[in-house]
Amino acid sequence: MKKFLRITLKALGILVAIVLIVGVIGYFYVSNTFLSFEDDYAENKDLKELTLADNTFIDRNGNGALDVYEDDRNPIEMRVADVLKQMTIDEKIHLLKGSGLASAMGIREDGIPGVVGTVVATPRLGLPEVNLSDGPAGLRIEPIREGIDRTFYCTAFPIATLLASTWNTDLVTEVGDAMGNEALEYGIDVILGPGANIHRHPFCGRNFEYYSEDPLITGKIGAAMVNGIEANGVGTSVKHFVANNQETNRNYNDTRVSDRAMREIYLKGFEIIVKDAQPWTIMSSYNKVNGTYTSESKDLLTDILRDDWGFKGLVMSDWFGGNDAVAMVKAGNDLLEPGTKKQWDALEEGYENGSITEEAIDTAVSRILTLVFKSQKMQGYAYSEKPDLKAHAAITRKSASEGMVLLKNEATLPLAQKLNVALIGVTSYDFIAGGTGSGDVNEAYTVSLEEGLQNNGYTINKVAKKTYQDHKAANEEAFKKPEGINAMFSPFIPPQIEYTDALMQDIVNSSDVAVVTIGRNSGEGGDRVVKDDWLLSQLEEEMLNKTTETFHKAGKKVVVVLNIGGVIETASWKSQPDAILLAWQGGQEGGNAVADILDGKVNPSGKLTMTFPVNIEDHASHANFPLDGKPMQMTDMFWGKDEKPEDEQEKDVDFTTYEEGIYVGYRHFDTKKLDVSYPFGYGLSYTDFAVSEVTASLENDVINVTAVVQNIGTNAGNEVVQVYVAKPETAIDRAAQELKAFAKTSLLAPEATQTLSLQIPVNELSYWNENTNNWSLEPGTYRIKVGTSSRSIAQEVEITLE
Ligand code: BGC
Q1: Which of 354, 392, 447, 744 places its Cα 20 to 30 Å from the Cα of 701?
Q2: What is the model's pTM?
Q3: Paired residues of 793 in beta bridges
Q4: Distance between CA 395 and CA 250 in Å, rounded?
């Protein structure tokens, strides 16, 4: 009995200790992350004078006249300077950090549910709270609000990689315009996107949020997106600045990279965006570069971004990014998001002990105030909460079909009308609209391939459909989509179907053609892996083998649709099907967009913005990339992690060495003359084009290139002309060729021609000279190669620079 009592008491003691520890940690955790907004007003009485909602400017001082800053006829700089003079130091410091995750977590009652960050209000001066929301593929807010009898869905536009594959900057601007309009009408002031990181390696889990392995395409498409969104008076936050190319240990990884690779590859896309579109904000990334957190790097945030490139906006941190709040603000990271109590305290303390001056605080605050004054919130814009979702769905469908890439077509597509289509593979029915994490969108619906084909007049084969339905019924649990925070960090794909020979025979007997869909999903917090991801799974291989064998034996065709967000292995199986369409993840209208191509309503004109290699090991970056796709630890993100001593640091996890330097993507494959499965810039059409009469001339430090494109086939279509530049005689280490300009024709009828004219500023032929720490231009002869992929150059001309 005594023994029993002793054990029970001991167990109780342990339990109490656990509860206490969890409680203390939990309190610390919650008070430092989620609740800082409420703390703001509870703790700081000076800030509490007016309510948040009160941001009207009618004679706040009651003296019969508007202050300079209150009068919106005054230029913004003047208003900022005036209000800055009126702010207390506490108010200024308060503005440097957002209000925590309260809105995103649904803790706040007065916020917009789903808003992940804010610029805090300064009620005493009538400065409103500004809302920040994700993300690159459309606005991400909560669609359902408690007690409100309507929904707040947003449009899931195609993923960034698909949009880049259109090579059509005007179209991307149109998409951006629609996305920005949704933000405007839902009361959001800044969209946290677009993403401008480079596809250094195909396994980065967030590549779908980014455009390309090439910085020019990244920059031009990114600028088009920023211009489209910001035309609405809504800001963007171009992210993640910079060299954030893996998700493994993303908050702490140190990117070790040469200055040259930084300038020519990783920074270049951002540079183009800043110069072409001057975004309202830039988001610093989580990682370090050469030992310093980007968010604490004066070199990156001030010397390069502002002094070199002339960036005028503000820099915000990525969520919970950086380590030392004072160092961040001093480096030029003006706004800390989502903002924690810990950071607020650190900034107050830093000011008191002199480690940060009022001048440095004023610099950051002025940039934040500039954004506040530009915001629609400040203009008192009465947002409708009724964006035209129908019109935006139409733009989604159009852009999705333009960014899909036809990889193979042996006299198969377009399909004849009214066929009976056997849809094989689970993702034909559960089509994937986009990736997961903050790049996900809460859309009202996703059109599957099944629905898309039906909408386009095709009959869906019943045997194949029933196979899917039975499979789903038998795997009910595995088909349940994760919700909430789980949905954010676990890319979901339902389990694949196993087809028996008899079943496949039934399917072929009752259908005209097979469409096999291969689906992939990935997202924030984890990288991709070889098994069942880069490679087809065993079930997928069997499914493809069985379908192609059975259908071909019956004299019927097989089309593969790749519903993926990043590159997969294709070399080993691409000979099997008759056609392959890289559909990417086309947003909520994905199924319709694929059907538009399959039935020929749209002639495909998308081109790859990255290489599809034969082997993953062929990528030069592969020698230094994490390969086990370890998912992120949420606790690491919120709590921080102790620095490991140098000799305990794990390669590709704690640090990643970019040994390949500038040799990313085709720069490597083309220089090393490696075989690829599909080259950069590649994509087929239902017609053929000829590119000819290439000229290049130099005028006022700009190389003007012209090329004549003729449609020599039988269908109307668009072609993308790509200009690569090479310098065969060179004293430096150079890639075989680099993309320097591109343009897309308008829709050309058969036989029609169009002369395209493209400009390359001579400066863009410079390389980053690590000896002089500056750009250098080599004199001599450059070859201007004009073609339709990095491996299909139609004509070359030369230009000589003195
Ligand atoms: C992501 C950012 C995103 C932010 C807010 C972070 O985890 O890295 O891209 O904008 O969360 O959701």
Answers
A1: 744
A2: 0.94
A3: 787
A4: 34
